[in-house]
Amino acid sequence: MRRYILTGTPGAGKTAILRRLECDGYTVVEEAATDVIALRQAQGEPEPWTKPSFVEAIIALQRRRQEQAAALPGDVQIYDRSPVCTYALATYLGHPVPPALSRELERIQAGQIYEKTVFFVQNLGFVTPTDARRITFEESMRFEQVHQDAYTALGYECVAIAPGTLLDRVAAVRKQLQAG
């Protein structure tokens, strides 16, 4: 099983790329942070990312999804973010790295859970705010750098998926998948 991570700054177009890859027959494993935000906001917590427990909730959901994905068909899986992204998020938000996240990072490294090639979707030059994405473009650029630094420090190779049309970006990912 080859598990690839697709990541990048908020609003870079990851979801559109993932939906196209899914329509093309690839197995896609959903991002956890957005779902944690949506649930907590539905429970009356307007900014769940301000609490350190937010990181623990993300990592728990990511691990469950990764373990459940083992039963999914196909020899290639595309993950919308990973525990490395959660580490980058904790760093960006100024939250301490909880022991559960440290253990998960150790587990994915020791078990070689993900391929070392990471698809890093570059920003589009703007960010469209949503209920879950309340970040300015300037903040997203800082977050993008924190992401890249986290992946590089853990030995991953970030393959840039440049801005362009959806079809061009999907083609760039597919080309890398075929080469891998």
Short description:
With 180 residues, the protein is of the alpha/beta class.
Description:
This protein is α/β, with parallel strands linked by helices. It has one domain: P-loop containing nucleotide triphosphate hydrolases (Rossmann fold, 3-Layer(aba) Sandwich). Helices cover 51% and strands 14% of the residues. The chain has helices at residues 14-23, 33-42, 53-69, 83-93, 99-110, 137-153, 166-179; strands spanning 2-8, 27-29, 76-80, 117-121, 157-161. Strands 2-3-1-4-5 form a 5-stranded parallel beta sheet, sandwiched between helices. Helix 3 (53-69) packs antiparallel against helix 4 and helix 4 (83-93) packs across helix 6 (137-153). The longest helix has 17 residues, at 53-69.
Secondary-structure blueprint:
Layout: E1 2-8, H1 14-23, E2 27-29, H2 33-42, H3 53-69, E3 76-80, H4 83-93, H5 99-110, E4 117-121, H6 137-153, E5 157-161, H7 166-179
Parallel strand pairs: 1-3, 1-4, 2-3, 4-5
Helix pairs in contact: 1-7, 3-4, 4-5, 4-6
What is the ordering of alpha helices and beta strands? EHEHHEHHEHEH
Indicate the CATH architecture: 3-Layer(aba) Sandwich
Beta-strand share of residues = 5-15%
* Coarse shape: globular
Overall number of strands: 5
Main pleated-sheet profile:
5 strands, parallel
* Helix percent band: 40-55%
Give the CATH class.
Alpha Beta
Alpha-carbon Rg, integer: 15 Å
What CATH calls the topology is Rossmann fold
Distance between the termini: 12 Å
User: CATH homologous superfamily?
Assistant: P-loop containing nucleotide triphosphate hydrolases
| Order of strands, widest sheet | 2-3-1-4-5
Instruction: Indicate the structural class.
Output: alpha/beta
Low-confidence stretches: none
Averaged pLDDT, please?
Answer: 92
Count of separate structural domains: 1
Q: How many helical stretches?
A: 7
